[in-house]
Amino acid sequence: MANSQIESGAPITLQELYPSSPFFMEARSLRVTGLLKGYSVETAIGVIEDGEKSLKINTQHLRDVSFRVGSVYQFIGELHIEPNNEARTGRNVDGIDINLYRKTIELLRRFLEVEEDNRNMVE
Amino acid sequence: MTRDIHRLTPSPTEANCFSLGAISWVSRVETVGTIVSRDMAEKFLKFSVDDGTGCVTCIMWLNQLTSPYFHRFDSSTILLHSRVARRQARDIRIGAVARVRGRVGLYRGGMQITATNVVIERDPNAEILHWLECVRLSRSCYRIQS
C-alpha cells in the first residue's frame, strides 16, 4: 500500500493551452473539459472544443465510456505535443456549469498559489 | 483538498491525529475526485483519487467476515458492513467521480485514507462545489487560531 505515484491532472481550460503556457509541456498531466465535436471509432481519437479552442484526445485506453458527439466530456491524461494527447480517464459531464467551472478553477489556482506563498514565508 | 492531506503532520501526543500547521487537528477527511487507479487484492481494494490538487491512495477493507477487529459486533452487523463495503467496491471504477470519507493515516511515508464510506457522484458539478467548499472551509475554519 505505498503512496500513490500517479500525477494529479491539473484542471485547465483549453484556452490555457498555448505554446508559452506553463501547462504546455510534454507529458504534463492535465484535466480538460470540452464539447465532443467529433469521434472516430477506428482510431479512437476524439476532438473536444471549448469556445474557439479544440484538442484531440486519444481514448484507446478508456473503458466503459460511450462517446456521443454533442455531449460534454472531461478527460484526465498526459499532454503530447505530437501526435495526440492520451487520456487515462474520461467521463460524460453533460449538465456541467461550464462558466462556474472556469471561474472555480481560476479561484482554486489563485487560492493554492497564495497558500504556497504563505507556506514558503513561514518556512 | 488532497494537497493539504499530503501536508498533514502527525500529532506528537495523539495517535492517528494530524494537523496542517499548528492548528486544526484532524483524524477523518473527505475528498471528492476522479478515480484514476483501482487495484483489487484479497482483503482490500486500493484505489487512487485525483481531485485536481493531488492524488491520494484510498483503502477499502473487504475482510469484515474474517477480521478480528469486527468480532466485537454481532453477526448481522458484520454481514451488513461486509455487504455495504462490497457494494461500494463494485461501484469504484476508473473514471468515476467519488466522494470518499474515512480516516487519514500515514503508511510507508505517505498519507492515505482508510475509506469508511464511498459514494459515486453523478452530478457533474459535484467536484466544483467541493473545491468551493474546501476554499471556504480553509478560510473560515481551518485557518482560524484556536
Termini distance of chain B? Answer: 21 Å
- Give the largest interface pair and sizes: A-B, 38 and 37 residues
- Low-confidence segments of chain A, given as residue ranges, are none
**Alpha plus pi helix count of chain A:** 1
Please give the share of residues in helix of chain A: 10-25%
Q: What's the number of extended β-strand segments of chain A?
A: 6
Q: Give the SSE string of chain B.
A: HEEEEEEHEEH
Radius of gyration of chain A: 16 Å
Indicate the overall shape of chain B.
globular
Hey, roughly how much beta strand do the residues of chain B contain? 35-45%
Main β-sheet, spatial strand arrangement of chain A: 2-3-4-6-5
Q: Mean pLDDT of chain B, nearest integer?
A: 89
Total helices of chain B: the number is 3
- Tell me the number of strands of chain B: 8
- Give a short account of the largest sheet of chain A: 5 strands, mixed, barrel
**Rough shape of chain A?**
globular
Q: What's the SSE pattern of chain A?
A: EEEEEEH
Mean pLDDT figure of chain A: 89
Q: How does the helix and strand content of chain A classify structurally?
A: alpha/beta
GO molecular function, one term (chain A): telomerase inhibitor activity
Protein name (chain A): CST complex subunit TEN1
Organism (chain A): Brassica carinata
InterPro entries (chain B): NA-bd_OB-fold, NA-bd_OB_tRNA, RFA2-like
